[in-house]
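All the exercises in this workshop are built on plain-text protein records. Instead of coordinates, the fold is spelled out as a row of discrete tokens. Once this layout is familiar, the rest of the handout is easier to follow. The record below serves as our worked example for the rest of this section.
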Amino acid sequence: MESFLVTTKSLTPISLRARRDSRYESTLSYIPGSVLWGGLAAAHLRMRPQAEAEFAEFFLSEKIVCGNLYPAQFSLTNRATNPLENDRSAIRPLPRTARSCKRFGGFQFHANTDDDARHGVWDSLISWAVFSLSQQTDATAFDLGDCPICREPFDGFTGFYRRGRATGQWGAANVAKGIFTRTSISRARGAAAEGMLYSREFLREGNQFCGEWLIDGALTQRFQVFVEETTEDGWRVGHNRTRGLGKLDQLNLLPPAMPDTAATIETRAKSFNAALRAKAGAYARHAFYLPVTLLSDCIWPDAACRYQLQLTPAALAEIWGISDAELIYANADKRRVSGWNGMWGMPKADEWAMAMGSVFLFGLTAEPNWQRLAEAQAAGLGIRRAEGFGAIRFADEIHWEANNV
């Protein structure tokens, strides 16, 4: 599988409601891979109705993984361009362990140029790990009390970030949103329906997006040609498409991004392990410590079709061959995943997923097999991987590098 960075921008507002509840007004801040996957599949059926074998190769063989497209704007309006704007590094969701000042949250890089007070970002995984390893008795591991600059309390820091390839370049993506208010039309009278005023949040036109896709090398050239054709033909994503929303610009598949190899994963994992041991001291009783971060929602049913909402030691042994592991700390959330099948004209069944940004830390009895971990990271976790679900990353740099960045 070849790795690509895919970029695009919205030509019209986009509405991506996370639920079918009519009372739920919010939109997602990113374009899910499932939306892109479904849009491309529908475009293929419309443009190439006789190419059934190709459709099966593209959309039924799991040889193409359409990852989520996350917001990719880092410069503030009417300010100098942030160098991260043109960086080709991947954009990832912030882990649930990220913390920042409740009043002036955000990465410090480029803050002075933006004339925007941002007091830095910290990651709390190592602190929580030390507290857990001490059998929850040593609270001195927590050094994330209040912001050292303004003494305001810390709070969870959510969103999406990019770690530039230059030292110290960290930035949280900005996404422009808006709200429109409409009145439903009475089918009986053809006029405004009484008591049917509603609002919807949307992503504004001009938002930039970027994501990681995986494509089988044998399909790369043909798939790129097909994607270019869909742009010429035009296609839309999300809700309210018949009202003019959801139009995307051309999907640009950039030259293959540098994929994670066994060597790079090993280097990252050993750096995290060393950082944790330096802080844990005598509490570090395991041979090796390995964190796993979810880069997208993960739908993972077990053999009895029950949705698993936590990564367990038994699962590590079953899927990655890592035996005798111990779960040291977990910071996870769940999310209900819904959707619409455009080809069938029916809603998809709701499913439960471990939410993106969830973090799990394991203590191991020995160093893992790095080549196997590289293969596991590329394969992802759970079902519906072709739609972008189940993307993972071992030992993300933010867990030990984010210390007032």
